Amino acid sequence: METEFQSLERRITECRRCPRLVEWREKVAREKVRRYKAEEYWGRPVPAFGSPKPAVVIIGLAPAAHGGNRTGRIFTGDRSGEWLYEALYRFGFANQPTSINRNDGLTLNDCLITAAVRCAPPGNKPLPGEMGNCREYLVREIQLAAGKQIVITLGQVAFRSFLKIWQEIAGLPSGLKLEFSHGGEWTLTGGILLIASYHPSQQNTQTGKLTRPMFHSIFRRAREILSGNSGIRNQDSE
Which of 4, 101, 112, 223 maximizes the CB count within 10 A of its CB? Predict the structure, then answer.
């Protein structure tokens, strides 16, 4: 019997709310780049990946045109995914360090990966209305992920998206203002620990804005907290 989480993810993959994103994701899936010419693209909204009752929820921006939009699994088949899954494996959240395709045997341990937007947007830049159309999916995933203790946001867009969602879920006044910083930590109403990270995009990793030691520190910190080896480092509650 299909669970509520499974039903939600199925509905996400069938979504056609945003005409611009539908047109783009399907065009990319038809007009493939040369290196993936022989592959069949997913070309649909990409569901979350991992445990529906996680201790750690990781939120990104959106699938990459030739990453998740091709493979059908979030952060899979692109450079950002290489960084993310290598870090997850290093700190015990994944069973292997690589993410090639959705049938490569990769599994996550007590971890869920999702995104603010589920379709690959042109130029990696979704419009505000498109983010609004996707918002209810992320809201419901957060509500269903009852085992969560830590939320890790990758990039400022994911950071702001989650804060807006958490205000609604927790019944907080609008306008919660937290300043994004890599490695920043905030304890939120409900006992959730929010940790912010730069996104492992090529724009950040190739320029040195985000280094592997910096990125690894985020997941090392999450593992320390879950293992009970370290208290809250910088506690700012709303």
Answer: 112
- Give dist(CA 119, CA 22) in Å, integer: 8
Enclosing H/E stretch for 45: none
Contact predicate 99/81, CB 8 Å = yes
Q: What is the pLDDT of residues 11-57, one digit of tens each?
A: 999 999 999 999 999 999 999 999 999 999 999 999 999 999 999 99
> Cα–Cα distance between 208 and 101 in angstroms, integer?
27
3-state secondary structure of 193: strand
- Nearest Cα neighbor of 148 from 104, 111, 93, 187 is 111
Q: Give the tens place of pLDDT for each residue, 156-169.
A: 999 999 999 998 88
Query: Residue 193: which of 238, 152, 139 has the closest Cα?
Result: 152
